[in-house]
Amino acid sequence: xxxxxxxxxxxxxxxxxxxxxxxxxxxxxxxxxIEFEDNTSANCFAMTPFENPPDEExxxxxxxxYCLMKDKELHSPPDIFVSDGDxxxxxxxxxEKNGGTGGIHHIAYEVENVEKTxxxxxxxxxxxxxxxxxxxxxGLVQCFTKPHPVTGVIYEFIRRLKxxxxxxxxxxxxxxxxxxx
Length: 181
Known about the structure:
This protein is an alpha+beta fold. The protein has helices at residues 13-24, 90-97, 114-123, 167-176; strands at 2-10, 27-35, 41-48, 67-68, 74-75, 79-85, 102-110, 135-137, 140-144, 154-160. Strands 2-3-6-1-7-10-9-8 form an 8-stranded mixed beta sheet, sandwiched between helices. A two-stranded antiparallel sheet has the order 4-5. A hairpin with a 2-residue loop joins strand 8 and strand 9 (140-144). The longest helix is centred in the N-terminal third of the chain and has 12 residues, at 13-24. The protein is globular.
């Protein structure tokens, strides 16, 4: 299991994105807006780390975005998802509830089978989920836990059959958190 992405809900996604670009070498891969039924919206950036891993001679250039391990294996950091929202939106309310600045909303783990992972977590009473079944779109299967009773973290399980995010899935996932704001 590896971390697929870390999602932040923040007051200002542009300032947050600039921080990730400057401090960690990320780039904006995709930008999109999500419109909700209450006429509010969330504005989102999907960000990826530096495209090409460094070689041993040139480790300093993208060292912000790659970690050279003692066994010389390079590990790419997870993608970053950053969103802010209109006043009154799901994202805005979460940010306000969490001090007005926002923070990490969830950590997403890539798994082989989202439904089986949900079943395992339910069976072991490790977490409750925001939906009964995974949320699916072409090439993407996802689910959210409710905030974990021990860690306080929302976990996402994700299975990608193609790269990128699905606006429909992001909207459905955001809406699934409405009751756990």
